[in-house]
Amino acid sequence: MDFPLFETLCIENGQVQNLALHQQRYENSLREFYAGQPYEIFSLAKILQKNTALWANLQSPIIRCRIDYNATQYHLQCFPYQRKTYQRFQPVICDDIDYHLKYSDRAIFNQLLKQKGDCDEIIIVKQGKITDCTIGNLILRQGSQWFTPDSPLLIGTQRTALLQQNKIKVRSIFLTDLADYEEIRLINALNPF
């Protein structure tokens, strides 16, 4: 079965994080990817409720839940998750990358990761601007204020939640501006601010 798109959700201490934002992105992705074709919208909350046994028995405070899907079907997997620390980032230029939907095919990221050297992760630079890393959005600190690039490859749910809470601000950030920031952090569904 071919599942071209997916969502990754965080279940922390039994609570699904940012579920409404995941549902919204999932529905928008279905509408765009399957435009002009029939598709069925599922409730992610109902999918999780129906499959509680997959994650309730994992004995981990943080569960990584991946839902791969196509127009009419889905496949759910759950794994214990341990948060990692990313401290060193290698800028990598890729001017033709397109990842505006959460595609299951991540071959482009695997190719780009070959350039990370001894760093923990890469910063993808497109047309001179900072975008994302391979597994999430980026936030950069200048003084006490945190900024996120105005040109993300994917609109992440964690990024959206932080913007709604006014904890971060959007800004154009060019590769040449990196020295102006004191800290860089990776954020995604499993790695909050």
TrEMBL record:
<dbReference type="Pfam" id="PF01063">
    <property type="entry name" value="Aminotran_4"/>
</dbReference>
<dbReference type="InterPro" id="IPR036038">
    <property type="entry name" value="Aminotransferase-like"/>
</dbReference>
<dbReference type="GO" id="GO:0008483">
    <property type="term" value="F:transaminase activity"/>
</dbReference>
<dbReference type="GO" id="GO:0016829">
    <property type="term" value="F:lyase activity"/>
</dbReference>
<keyword id="KW-0032">Aminotransferase</keyword>
<dbReference type="InterPro" id="IPR001544">
    <property type="entry name" value="Aminotrans_IV"/>
</dbReference>
<keyword id="KW-0808">Transferase</keyword>
<keyword id="KW-0456">Lyase</keyword>
<dbReference type="InterPro" id="IPR043131">
    <property type="entry name" value="BCAT-like_N"/>
</dbReference>
<dbReference type="InterPro" id="IPR043132">
    <property type="entry name" value="BCAT-like_C"/>
</dbReference>
<protein>
    <submittedName>
        <fullName>4-amino-4-deoxychorismate lyase</fullName>
    </submittedName>
</protein>
